[in-house]
Amino acid sequence: MYNFNYVKADSVQGAADALSAADDGKYLAGGMTLLPTMKQRLAAPTDLIDLGGIGDLAGISVDGGTVTIGATTTHATVAASAEIAGAIPALAKLASEIGDPQVRNRGTIGGSVANSDPSADYPAAIVALGATIVTNKREIAGDDYFLDIFETALEEDEIITAVKFPVPEKAAYIKFPNPASRYAVVGVFICTGGGDVRVGVTGAGPCAYRATDLEDALKADFSEAAVDGVTIDGSSFNADMHASAEFRANLVSVGAKRAVVQLS
Prior knowledge:
Enolase-like, domain 1, globular, alpha+beta, Uridine Diphospho-n-acetylenolpyruvylglucosamine Reductase, domain 2, five-stranded antiparallel sheet, four-stranded antiparallel sheet, 264 residues, 12 helices, Uridine Diphospho-n-acetylenolpyruvylglucosamine Reductase, domain 3
């Protein structure tokens, strides 16, 4: 790890000012991705601006049909939240399956969403539920947020302050985890409400996406047979030592069917 300046911000504006003053600064949330890359000397920011001391960025609230989670809220807090379990049980389940206890107690929803790791869990819920990413500058629709592997719609100096999730009628998350890292080889999140069906997929492609072909089939017939009638195009899917693109395409189908069974 190379030398760097450490700044512990006490406000969102203070963090933004510190980044502006740095030669090559980076925001630090839980550090689950940034710190390991720095240890391997794959990243060498001149300044780390720690967001952990900003009290306004942590917390959970449920107001009517919206669940709001502050950016520095840990995965463990989301998993243990009675409010989230009552409003969107599948979201609490998703958080409980992230990594191991050490990761869940340090990693944050804001850090996960900002990183846009192709195998992260929260992105599937964000695109399926139609969540909104709230920053210090604007609000970004979940459908418009994830652009590519490790690439989002965030501007360089933008800070995620919260994520807002609409409460669906029903939702389910099926994950096929890597046995070692617990990252999603594939994760499928399905939610229903108001006659609509939305399907979010993570782990399969360069970034999380909505499986509109599955959505259309399930709107017409919410059944396992409808999923079987959809050919999952894996031509742009990830292929690595853990799974081929073809295998990931099959997991998308299997995960969707398992989610349908849970919701039926």
